[in-house]
Amino acid sequence: MLLAFCQWVSTTAVGQAINMSSWAFAVIESVHLLGLAVIGGAVLMLDLRLLGLGLRDQPIARIARDAQPWLTGSLIVMLFTGVLLFSSEPIKCYNSTPFRVKMSSLVLAMIFAFTVRRKVALAGDGQVPVVWLKIVAIVSLVLWLGVGASGRWIGFSA
Amino acid sequence: MSLLPFVQWLADTSGSVALRESLYVYPLVESVHVLTLCVFLGMAVMFDLRLLGITLTTVPTSQLKKRLGPWITGGFIVMMTTGVLLLYANPMRSYQSLWFRMKMVALALAGVNAFVFHRTIDQRIAEWDEDPVPPSAARFAGARSLVLWTIVVVAGRMIAYNWFDCDRQPQPGIVNTLAGCVVLSAGAR
User: Fold this and answer.
1) If DSSP codes are grouped into helix, strand and coil, which group holds residue A49?
2) What is the pLDDT of residues A86-141, one digit of tens each?
3) Three-state secondary structure along chain B?
4) At what angle are helices B136-158 and B98-119 packed, to 10 degrees?
5) What is this model's ipTM?
6) DSSP 8-class letter at A85
């Protein structure tokens, strides 16, 4: 079923247009990379704070609220450019183990970011034991690092 | 005076060849270079956005400098180390790459911008530390930084593409000049 979906994607106009152009893929990839810097900043700022590092003079909830629009915004850019990149090589992605690892980590990282991590961060200082704050931060960092590292690896294992 | 002979010599050193041809070390160095972007540029972008007065506006700018500074510096050191290793692995290709040259120029300008910011408006940070929107000199420094780092990232990514490579002739004269291509004259060809 996944294969049928990927085969269908490879026939869509968007994917074919990207493949026809000599620079479209490179440009989309660049935007994807710029999004990485922003999402990295948004994720790290809060996770570092949860670990008691970074902006540690500030309440956790404030950092969480300030980081939220950058996380959501950059995630939208990442997903949009990511879908475009995928549409230009769906069969390669289908056969790529790193791509599958990336998608699995991505789903987990997003669910975690918008549920547990968000709740814990907005709960207010002192509401959640420090050790749990740290565990949440480490889980978040590991999941997002998994997304980034496996994402980079898609390009190596062609 | 040209750096070309030195670059050619560097490319033939055993370390350069070993790194270039390594199965795992090279991709690993490259991955660290890309992923450290999150630490270095991610934190630097947050600082620039604070200078622009569009995030963390209730946090004094000096606090961001103090708390995020070490992460920016640490990230930068990793970026430079891995970047130099990548350059060491591909001396010729980098040296004669239009994109690599553009990246280095933007990188140098970003450095100048940071230095000037530090020497001017940053010296009077006490006067505007808690302003939600910092003075225009600080905002412009933040905006210039964002533009320059964007060029660094995009040009860096483009190094991998061969549109303007010297071994893909004919190229427009301007490309050959800017990329430092050594092109045989029409007669010699």
Assistant:
1) helix
2) 999 999 999 999 999 999 999 999 999 999 999 999 997 888 999 999 999 999 99
3) CCCHHHHHHHHHCHHHHHHHHCCCHHHHHHHHHHHHHHHHHHHHHHHHHHHCCCCCCCCCHHHHHHHHHHHHHHHHHHHHHHHHHHHHHCHHHHHCCHHHHHHHHHHHHHHHHHHHHHHCHHHHHHHHCCCCCCCHHHHHHHHHHHHHHHHHHHHHHHCCCCCCCCCCCCCCHHHHHHHCCCCCCCCCC
4) 160
5) 0.94
6) H
- Identity at B90, one-letter amino acid code: N
- Chain A positions touching B67 (Cβ under 8 A) are 54-57
Contacts of B43 in chain A (CB under 8 A): 41, 44-45
What is the rounded CA–CA span in Å between residue B128 and residue B137? Answer: 11
pTM: 0.94
Beta-carbon separation of A38 and B30 below 8 A: no
Indicate yes or no: CB of B43 within 8 angstroms of CB of A44.
yes
**Locus of tokens 């050959």:** B176
Q: Minimal Cα distance from B41: which residue of A?
A: A37
Using alpha carbons only, give the angle B150, B156, B161 rounded to the nearest 5 degrees.
Answer: 125
Q: Yes or no: say if A45 and A67 are a contact pair by the CB < 8 Å rule.
A: yes
Place of tokens 């980590």: A105
Q: What are phi and psi of A137, to 5 degrees?
A: -60, -45
Instruction: Dig out the tokens for A135 from the structure.
Output: 């565990």
Q: Measure CA B33 to chain center.
A: 11
Which residue from B31, B153, B157 is facing A149, i.e. has the nearest CB?
B31
Q: In this predicted model, what pLDDT tens digit does every residue of A43-80 receive, in sequence order?
A: 999 999 999 999 999 999 999 999 999 999 999 999 99
Task: Give me the helix-helix angle, B61-89 and B25-51, nearest 10°.
Answer: 150
